[in-house]
């Protein structure tokens, strides 16, 4: 080990030790909630920009978004977690880097079953996409969803692997819809149904752009050049709970999803598709958007849509997602309609 590497690995070891101490209380409360997946290390906020480390049950997944790990870094992490890790390098050349830096071990390729609030989810560290199948920073939102799901109907927009719908069904929802245009992602929810012995008839999967689906549910006309072509038709209807967790940006034939500049074009149809007395759980992951400014956007949008909100509460992420400036990029709003 060279002197420079030695000191970098030692400093990573001390960052990991500090991160572990900082999570002691959280880990204890997560165990009580029957949750065995959480973030062990959160990048720049804990001393190493571009490195995250997540525990998914017995699997420890390190992800790098800038510099790859060195052999000494890997050794330091494996010492800290007392076992082998899987490492996914996700810098610009991520696809090649997967092969170059991180061997396709059995640990990386097999399914691990994890538990969050007692609900089981499948995790495969190395799959055809880049993101892990369960976003751990959304735990705080799913915790609230779990509390409000019993006997409710739930709409999960931008569903990805459908973890919010599965969470809702496992906590007593009568029906949940997953809407996402990525078939391979929403299909993961079928495995989650099996793991939790849930009734497949309770889950509706809509593989389609969310924009036309949510606008039809809301009784609004479908816009964009996509409207001229065939798309999935749905009847207007309202749900008790709508979970709206869009990506920061995406563009398609029905228009753009642009969370920083045009949240109302998502929030208005989501709101109109929510029953009177219901709940919208909405997220915004864009760091540049201030929480209070976003709360104002939601409030004004609801008033303009004729569905003024009774209350908006902003949730803090759990302590495994510390913010270096005290302003977490991920914001979750509970909006009572
Ligand atoms: C950040 S993930 C959402 C995470 C998800 N809500 C969860 O609970 O894990 C973004 C998802 O949005 C989907 N997506 C992006 N733009 C979309 C659009 N216009 N219509 C449908 N799905 C879209 C992507 O396929 C991806 O699965």
Description:
- The chain is 34% helix and 25% strand.
- It is of the alpha/beta class and 337 residues long.
- The chain folds into 2 domains: 3-116, Transcription Regulator spoIIAA, CATH 3.30.750.80; 135-336, 3-Layer(aba) Sandwich (Rossmann fold), CATH 3.40.50.150.
- The strands form 4 sheets. Strands 9-8-7-10-13-15-14 form a 7-stranded mixed sheet, with helices on both faces. A 4-stranded mixed sheet has the order 1-2-3-4. The protein has a two-stranded antiparallel sheet with strand order 5-6.
- Strand 1 (37-42) and strand 2 (51-56) form a beta hairpin.
- 42% of the residues are buried.
- S-adenosylmethionine is lined by residues 135, 138, 158-161, 163-164, 180-182, 185, 209-211, 245, 247, 250, 252, 257.
Question: Could you give the topology of this structure?
Answer:
Blueprint: H1 3-22, H2 24-32, E1 37-42, E2 51-56, E3 59-64, H3 71-81, E4 86-89, H4 94-101, H5 106-109, E5 112-116, E6 119-123, H6 139-148, E7 153-157, H7 163-170, E8 175-180, H8 183-186, H9 188-195, E9 203-207, H10 210-217, E10 239-244, E11 249-252, E12 255-258, H11 264-272, E13 274-284, H12 291-304, E14 311-315, E15 331-336
Helix pairs in contact: 1-3, 6-7, 10-11, 11-12
Bound molecules: S-adenosylmethionine.
Keywords:
337 residues; alpha/beta; Transcription Regulator spoIIAA; Rossmann fold; seven-stranded mixed sheet; four-stranded mixed sheet; 34% helix; 25% strand; binds S-adenosylmethionine
